């Protein structure tokens, strides 16, 4: 059905401009980023699962966030790396294009829902510590994660379906390294103003729907921290939120530039750079953000490395 409506059975990804030498350099760079992203986020997931010191709601959410980071970069980067090795344009089937776009948007939506939930978790931990274990119990945490995943995947069904109901008669060449929705809309002969407006409203709902509770939570958190009399107490309270706050700034900042704009068909170079931030740079940075600024994670990592070294030395 999608084939009949879109009048396309495959698309061609233009990828990155430049010489073969530049493509080889980009391949080496992005391949390194991808490997570090996989290893860093996998280490976080394993530590959260096996280390008893990390058996708390904050690290439970962090484990799922790391899984989402692995997914979002795996959805995009392998296809991009393959395209950098190929001469000319890269062919991608309609089914693969639909799947890639849907998974990319669904995982991204899930991630924002989870970031909002993590902000509320930090609010309860700092502002209502005596009731933290009661409010953020195991059942609540599991429900928060399940709802985030289900919401993310259900919410993106219509936008992706509506995108591929358009007629792509101008060209089948997507000016990006993945099936970018903005560039797909450029290829349509239909009037896309209405669908672009609806997509804009949906992006506003997702981003600001999770950003507003984050802002409110951190307003109360900062107010509570400033009331703590000792400098060491303020520093300890802020350290529990610093990693999440840094992640929020990077994640929301890049996606606000990419999706929250009335005109989805923005310049290809602009979309390409911001897409790299979302799918390559942010997943690469997150393991460092959550390990270098978190004493418990550093301690658990250090002990894990010691145990591994002892096992190999036997």
UniProtKB/TrEMBL annotation:
<comment type="similarity">
    <text>Belongs to the G-protein coupled receptor 1 family.</text>
</comment>
<keyword id="KW-0552">Olfaction</keyword>
<keyword id="KW-0297">G-protein coupled receptor</keyword>
<keyword id="KW-0807">Transducer</keyword>
<dbReference type="GO" id="GO:0004984">
    <property type="term" value="F:olfactory receptor activity"/>
</dbReference>
<dbReference type="GO" id="GO:0005886">
    <property type="term" value="C:plasma membrane"/>
</dbReference>
<keyword id="KW-1133">Transmembrane helix</keyword>
<feature type="transmembrane region" description="Helical">
    <location>
        <begin position="272"/>
        <end position="292"/>
    </location>
</feature>
<dbReference type="InterPro" id="IPR000725">
    <property type="entry name" value="Olfact_rcpt"/>
</dbReference>
<keyword id="KW-1003">Cell membrane</keyword>
<protein>
    <recommendedName>
        <fullName>Olfactory receptor</fullName>
    </recommendedName>
</protein>
<keyword id="KW-0812">Transmembrane</keyword>
<feature type="transmembrane region" description="Helical">
    <location>
        <begin position="141"/>
        <end position="161"/>
    </location>
</feature>
<feature type="transmembrane region" description="Helical">
    <location>
        <begin position="25"/>
        <end position="50"/>
    </location>
</feature>
<dbReference type="GO" id="GO:0004930">
    <property type="term" value="F:G protein-coupled receptor activity"/>
</dbReference>
<keyword id="KW-0716">Sensory transduction</keyword>
<dbReference type="InterPro" id="IPR017452">
    <property type="entry name" value="GPCR_Rhodpsn_7TM"/>
</dbReference>
<feature type="transmembrane region" description="Helical">
    <location>
        <begin position="101"/>
        <end position="120"/>
    </location>
</feature>
<comment type="function">
    <text>Putative odorant or sperm cell receptor.</text>
</comment>
<dbReference type="InterPro" id="IPR000276">
    <property type="entry name" value="GPCR_Rhodpsn"/>
</dbReference>
<dbReference type="Pfam" id="PF13853">
    <property type="entry name" value="7tm_4"/>
</dbReference>
<dbReference type="InterPro" id="IPR047132">
    <property type="entry name" value="Olfact_rcpt_6C-like"/>
</dbReference>
<keyword id="KW-0472">Membrane</keyword>
<feature type="transmembrane region" description="Helical">
    <location>
        <begin position="237"/>
        <end position="260"/>
    </location>
</feature>
<feature type="domain" description="G-protein coupled receptors family 1 profile">
    <location>
        <begin position="40"/>
        <end position="290"/>
    </location>
</feature>
<feature type="transmembrane region" description="Helical">
    <location>
        <begin position="59"/>
        <end position="81"/>
    </location>
</feature>
<feature type="transmembrane region" description="Helical">
    <location>
        <begin position="193"/>
        <end position="216"/>
    </location>
</feature>
<keyword id="KW-0675">Receptor</keyword>
């Amino acid at each position: 059905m999608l084939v009949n409506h879109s009048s396309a059975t495959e698309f061609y990804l233009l990828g990155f401009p430049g010489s073969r030498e530049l493509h080889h350099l980009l391949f080496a760079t992005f391949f390194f980023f991808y490997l570090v992203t996989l290893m860093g986020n996998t280490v976080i997931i394993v530590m959260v699962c096996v280390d008893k010191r990390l058996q708390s709601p904050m690290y439970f959410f962090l484990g799922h966030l790391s899984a989402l980071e692995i997914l979002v970069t795996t959805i995009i980067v392998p296809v991009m790396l393959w395209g950098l090795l190929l001469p000319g344009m890269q062919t991608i089937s309609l089914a693969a294009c639909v799947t890639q776009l849907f998974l990319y948007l669904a995982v991204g939506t899930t991630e924002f829902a989870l970031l909002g939930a993590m902000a509320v978790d930090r609010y309860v931990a700092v502002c209502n510590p005596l009731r933290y274990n009661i409010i953020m119990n195991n059942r609540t945490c599991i429900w928060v994660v399940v709802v985030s995943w289900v919401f993310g995947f259900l919410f993106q069904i219509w936008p992706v379906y509506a995108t591929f109901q358009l007629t792509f008669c101008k060209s089948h060449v997507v000016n990006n390294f993945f099936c970018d929705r903005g560039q797909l809309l450029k290829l349509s002969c239909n009037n896309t103003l209405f669908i672009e407006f609806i997509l804009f409203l949906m992006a506003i709902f997702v981003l600001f729907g999770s950003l507003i509770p984050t802002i409110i939570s951190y307003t109360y958190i900062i107010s509570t921290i400033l009331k703590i009399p000792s400098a060491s107490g303020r520093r300890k309270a802020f350290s529990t939120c610093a990693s999440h706050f840094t992640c929020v700034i990077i994640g929301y900042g890049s996606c606000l530039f990419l999706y929250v704009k009335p005109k989805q068909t923005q310049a290809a170079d602009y979309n390409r750079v911001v897409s790299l931030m979302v799918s390559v740079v942010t997943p690469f940075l997150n393991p460092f953000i959550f390990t270098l600024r978190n004493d418990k994670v550093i301690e658990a990592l250090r002990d894990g490395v010691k145990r591994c070294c002892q096992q190999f030395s036997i």
